């Protein structure tokens, strides 16, 4: 394009010059012809014009030839420059691609990974010496290097002032010199000691602090100054190395934490685990301690992608209960706690208990963090204890009945009249026999509930008459403590599926407890209310209340508040445990609210009879 423009300009000058010469020599020839009036004059000027025209053409032709040659050289120079830039860009892209591949690959030897990156960069920059340094105060450590054999060693130490990197850190930017001997740094100690002519380097930052430098150098002078592309490459490499070291530090910290957790978990009985339930229903154990071997005879690797091997070992009678408890914990994000059996392929069965806390993830999955431990021995002891209590209770009932009858006859003076001291003694004996009978009856009830042998007659019936009967039957008991019962019902038309006798047993326990722990001349309120599709029965006292330490154990067997005041009230410690079992069997819930010094409220929630069930009862 430029050559075409030059050619057009030359043609224009040629024609324009020819016209000017023609006009000039024509005018001069005409002036001379008017003076001499001879043809020789015209011939002379015509010849002069031709000679001038010839000289003009020769001059312009030579100028055009020189111009074209210069333009061709300029174009060749531009093409060579573009070719060099293209090659540099290709090398740059190739180097970046190689570094990206190195970064993507995991090499447990982090030094070797960085060494490969330095070698790639050194080849791109055509500088044979590449160093990643660690700088602390004035100590310069060769952390990783790539250089000709025998020239350097990793972990070599130098004084920072003896290296060009001191200039790099001071510059706080990419520092590059292609001919050190001709620069202002020719007197630097590094040049005097190592005669490195070419150098380019940048600071490496890790977690916001200066870690060291990455530098490339050569004893040979670089032909051309470092390009902006080369500077950008070194700057990018320094940032990549910094982020790589940060990731290594984070990974090493994770490994250290994992090793510490593994050591701790290995000392714990049972297994520590993470259980993940995905939205599609699939489940796995992302983490398991080696204790999984003692519980399921499995390894952590066997359950890392799927929890099926674990579920396959849960006892068939318990699997549904375990799955339901997991689904409930996931839906409500509440604590998962479950006792169940594990059955091995050889038929051996063990009992385990699990406890874990769920955590909702951003993708909709739920992860539980918890532990599972073997409680087989505890279950055996509990079974032996229950069997012992059951046996003792049954064996004591018959003789105790006979003793009670005999003492009753003596106390009633049926056989003979007793002196006053003997009457008091028989009265005391009879009272203690009744306490023993109450304890044995409670033990037998608990035994039947645990064994599933207690019979229930559950049918739809109105609740108010059942509550009124319980209040009426316990009036005399309340009078012993100078406590009165007051019943208040919002409606008399609440029906539920209950066993009236068992519900009265529960209410009797709640009313007797309320009376025992209420101050004299106080009132215990009993209220019947409707709460959505449930009936709510409340027993409210104004007693001493229940301590926070005892709240979690109040429905446990043989559980009593540990205070002298509570101990003086007596009781077997089984009443609330039996009540909870009875209410649960009637598909209800029992709970309480309490505040120390202000009293307690125990409540029972029972599902109301549906309209269809009510119509069937009415018919």
Task: Please explain how this structure is put together.
Helix content is 53%, strand content 21%. It is of the alpha+beta class and 619 residues long. The chain has five domains: 2-87; 105-252, Beta-Lactamase, CATH 3.30.450.40; 269-374, PAS domain (Beta-Lactamase, 2-Layer Sandwich); 380-451, Orthogonal Bundle (Helix Hairpins); 459-618, 2-Layer Sandwich (Heat Shock Protein 90). The strands form four sheets. It has a six-stranded antiparallel β-sheet, sandwiched between helices. A hairpin with a 5-residue loop joins strand 10 (349-360) and strand 11. It is elongated, with a radius of gyration of 51 Å. Mean pLDDT is 82; it is low at 562-568.
